[in-house]
Sequence to fold (550 residues):
Amino acid sequence: MQEKHITPGPKEINFPPAPTAATRFWRKFFPWQVVRFFVLNLKIMRIIIGGHS
Amino acid sequence: MKKIVVLGAGIAGHTASLILKHKLGRNHKVVVVSPHDKYQWIPSNIWVGIGQMTAKQVSFPLEPVYRKKGIEFFQGMATTIYPEGSMVNDNPHIAFEYTSDEKKGQAGIVEYDYLVNATGPKLNFAATEGLGPKLNFAATEGLGPKGFTNSVCTYPHAEEAWQNLRKSLDKMAKGEKQTFLIGTGHPTATCQGAAFEYALNVAFEISKRKLNDKAEIIWITNENDVGDFGMGGAFIKKGGYVTSTRIFAESILAEYGIRWITKAGVVKVEEGKAYYETLDGEKHIQEFDFAMLIPAFAGAGMKAKDKNGEDITSKLFAPSGFMKVDADYTTRPFAEWSAADWPSTYESPAYPNIFAAGIAFAVPHPISQPRTSKNGLPIFPTAPRTGMPSGVIGKIVALNIIDRIKNKHTGSPHKASMARMGAACIISSGYGLRDGMAASMTVFPIVPDYKRYPDWGRDLNYTIGEPGLAGHWVKLLLHYLFIYKAKAKPLWFLIPE
Fold:
């Protein structure tokens, strides 16, 4: 069984990747997210159209 | 005039019936038989379960829509298919039992030229002792007499989940500690994505109230690794590397302060206690104050009979109750599974005028690798077939029937295999136009195809995982767009599945 406790203090070597301050900023930065909104929609559209005949 | 009967009014059935009527017009008849009087946009039930949306926002009555479009609607549950007719009626027909208040329990029959089985799953709470909401929901849902967990599988369930979650939040506000157990409630349950989404949203609501120190949130899952999501996980490009969705999903759980238990099959629930076994054969008990656990899915439980009244259920349906279609059901070891096993037309091999759309079709095998505990308990996710694939399958089934009626085609030229089709799973993880968040995941194809994509099984340009505010907007957009489409408002047919 794999069981992990997310607790404060020293992290194990297999602790999963954590977002940096910059990553958190870009996730909420409005102009960038507007761009990503259109990119995501385009990818989803491509998936829908290409998925059936 | 041809008559097409659609069983079920979920994403697949509703899509199929609207397209059929739109393209066939008044010259042909479309009939829907569904046990529920309302349509629900299931992906948004998560928001009902955290009090950010009401049931009314995610559902609407079906009858006015069908009346407007000229579709005949019976509120009832199909019980038996007679594909060759019966001793009382020579034509193929189905028997059903009314579920509306006025006619509850009365029997009815509807003849058909084409039948679309889109009944979705039976939420098989009864497969896990003690699993399920406390409320006495319809017997059609397979609920046991007493449940100790919550569900967000339907909007009434989600409403009850929110009432119970609010009680826990109130207790925490008064200083009491609470343990939240969220995940899969059966060793072979599917729909991990929805449960994962609910866990993140619960964590978000707790964090918003600054109650983190009073909460322990646990993700319990039958996945071998977090991020499997019933599709064997996926590989995505991230930070200059190709990495697995395990890393992606673990990272998100850790960020939201959620610990996880994997390889776990919940076998029994009591008040505040979940009993589970892990792949290593060990048996454990996890205590909880609030639990939301997804049940196993089963077929709707319809029977089939031939002209003489002989039972031919096994000819149409797999033992799980899902309908057999044009898949390759040959039993093979995991290493020999291939994308070609998956169906593409959803036509019954026994009766070419019967189709199964959405969750109602029997999959040839799971997507994730099946695993069994040391005690012989199968613990792995079964294949997910929700949302986008259901809509696309409903559409191509409708198009094939239309082709046969209007263009006299004999086969099924329209195809949509889950091994050729992608899916988007927008896992919201916080609600709000400025503060919201979602982990957007797309996979292409849903079933990995190592012949076409030898390195990673999928197209990495369209298999992505990306947390951000934009994903939340996409989820909101899909909510309003698909409810608009399902209401068949002007130009609804321009909105893709």
Observations:
- Chain B touches chain A through 52 residues (CB under 8 Å).
- The radius of gyration of chain B is 22 Å.
- Chain B has a mean pLDDT of 93.
